[in-house]
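P.,

For your records, the input lines for the assembly:
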Amino acid sequence: RKEVEQDPGPFNVPEGATVAFNCTYSNSASQSFFWYRQDCRKEPKLLMSVYSSGNEDGRFTAQLNRASQYISLLIRDSKLSDSATYLCVVVDRGSTLGRLYFGRGTQLTVWP
Amino acid sequence: EPEVTQTPSHQVTQMGQEVILRCVPISNHLYFYWYRQILGQKVEFLVSFYNNEISEKSEIFDDQFSVERPDGSNFTLKIRSTKLEDSAMYFCASSEVEGQPQHFGDGTRLSIL
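Structure tokens returned:
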């Protein structure tokens, strides 16, 4: 059972480009959604929560489509420092303490 | 910014030996978690812990695994008899409020020989 699926990439884009990542989840009862980023051999770090109405944080925009069970992340004006693996993360409604289900991640490389 | 800290950063152990991985969660956090990531694979949930007891555990968290909060600050993961397939990065996480984003430590790389 694959709870969270992502396009693994890699995405290789020049500085200043706009790039979008997609994610689908299998459990319609999922209740919370996040994007984390993970640098090579480092811990996952919260990038942003994803709300039903969509939300923006600077150059990052997240969208949620519950009907299609689909989450997206848009990065505008890419920076070299955006190079990382982006993890789509879901919490199921039935989870007692918010067990996180991770996708395998989408790798992004931003080149000068 | 407060951090989750983990020790050691790297642990090398012979197969069959016991290991204890240590974590100090953020001080006002009440919900604690362990995850692992085998090299090249996704991050996987092991166990959640609240009010001195396990709340939920995955199928990975079998009888060889145990968790403990021995004092007011530490949160430990013990693997009783390690196997080669236990080699992975182990992440501790904590959150202040149930359902809120979890903050991860920088991990312990466990290598089983």
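Two observations worth noting. The first strand of chain B starts at residue 5 and ends at 7. Chain B is about 0% helix and 50% strand.

Regards
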